[in-house]
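Appendix C: a fully annotated inverse folding record. The material below is reproduced so that readers can follow the format used throughout the book. The structure is listed first as C-alpha cells, followed by the designed sequence.
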C-alpha cells in the first residue's frame, strides 16, 4: 500500500504537496517585500478650503527691542520725541538674519517716523568704529545719519555738552553752502557749555560705493575722526576719504572726560524727506585704550 503514495523518485505525495506549499509561500513573501521596497515614500498633504494666505517663511527683519543685546551692548530704543522734526518709532530699528542693524525713516499713511537707539551702558576712552552700508552721497537733503556719543542721555552733562559726533547729511543744503555732506563735531565737557561746539565739515564722495567705515579715537587730550572706503578692520588705516584730529590745549574743557553712551540714529532736519530712507550698520566695535 505504501508504494502507491510514492512517485518514481521515492517521495510521498504528502511530501510533494508540502514542497509546493513552501515554494508558494516563499514566492508570495518575496513579492510582498519587493512591493514594500518599491513603494514611494510620500509626505502627508493638508488640504484647506480657507481663503487665508498660506503661512510664509519667518521675516528676516526683526525689531530690536529696548533692553536687548546687539554687538555686545544692551540698547534703549527711542519711542516718541527725539531730535529733528519727526518722532522716533521702535519699528524703524531692526536687525536682519546677518546681525546687521537697519535704521529707517518710514512713511506710514502720510506720517514719517525715524529710528534711534542708545546704549544703556557708558563707555570711556578708546576707538569706536561703525561699518555702514548705504548710499551716503544720495540721502535726502534733510536726512541725517548720526553715529555718536551722547552723555545727556544717561545723565552726563546737558545738551550741548559731552557729545562726539560723526554725521552724514547735507543739512538741507546748508553745510558748506550745500557743498559738504558730512561732519565731525565735538561738544565740551560737563560745565563748559559756553565754549560751544567744534566742528569739521567735509565731503564724502563715494562714486557709487556704498560701504563706509567711520572711526573715532577718543582720548583725554585729543579726538581723531577717520572716514574710510570699504570695510576696514580695527587697527588698520587704509582707503581714507577724510581724517581730522582735534587736540586743543584746553582739552580738559573742550573734550568730554567721562564715559558716555553710544548712540545711532536716522532722522530729519527741518522737514521730512520726500521718500523712505534707510542705512544699515553692519557692525559696531569698541576697543578701549
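Designed amino acids, in order:
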Amino acid at each position: 500500500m505504501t508504494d502507491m503514495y510514492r512517485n518514481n523518485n521515492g517521495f510521498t505525495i504528502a511530501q510533494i504537496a508540502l514542497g509546493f506549499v513552501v515554494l508558494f509561500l516563499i514566492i508570495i513573501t518575496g513579492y510582498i517585500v519587493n512591493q514594500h521596497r518599491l513603494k514611494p515614500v510620500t509626505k502627508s498633504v493638508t488640504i484647506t478650503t480657507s481663503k487665508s494666505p498660506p503661512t510664509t517663511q519667518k521675516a528676516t527683519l526683526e525689531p530690536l527691542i529696548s533692553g536687548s543685546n546687539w554687538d555686545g551692548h544692551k540698547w534703549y530704543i527711542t519711542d516718541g520725541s527725539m531730535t529733528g522734526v519727526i518722532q522716533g518709532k521702535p519699528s524703524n530699528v531692526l536687525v536682519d538674519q546677518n546681525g546687521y542693524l537697519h535704521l529707517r525713516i518710514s512713511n506710514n499713511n502720510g506720517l514719517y517716523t525715524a529710528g534711534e537707539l542708545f546704549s544703556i551702558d557708558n563707555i570711556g576712552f578708546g576707538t569706536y568704529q561703525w561699518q555702514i552700508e548705504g548710499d551716503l552721497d544720495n540721502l535726502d537733503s534733510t536726512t541725517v545719519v548720526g553715529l555718536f556719543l551722547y552723555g545727556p542721555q544717561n545723565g552726563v552733562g546737558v545738551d550741548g555738552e559731552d557729545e562726539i559726533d560723526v554725521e552724514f547729511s547735507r543739512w538741507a543744503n546748508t553745510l558748506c553752502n550745500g557743498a559738504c555732506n558730512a561732519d565731525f563735531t565735538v561738544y565740551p565737557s560737563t560745565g563748559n557749555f559756553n565754549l560751544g561746539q567744534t566742528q569739521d565739515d567735509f565731503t564724502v564722495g563715494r562714486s557709487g560705493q556704498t560701504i563706509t567705515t567711520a572711526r573715532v579715537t577718543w582720548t583725554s587730550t585729543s579726538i581723531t575722526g577717520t572716514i574710510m572706503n570699504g570695510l576696514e578692520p580695527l587697527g588698520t588705516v587704509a582707503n581714507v576719504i577724510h581724517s581730522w584730529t582735534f587736540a586743543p590745549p584746553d582739552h580738559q574743557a573742550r573734550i568730554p572726560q567721562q564715559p558716555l553712551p553710544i548712540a545711532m540714529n536716522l532722522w530729519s532736519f527741518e522737514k521730512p524727506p520726500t521718500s523712505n530712507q534707510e542705512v544699515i550698520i553692519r557692525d559696531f566695535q569698541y576697543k578701549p585704550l
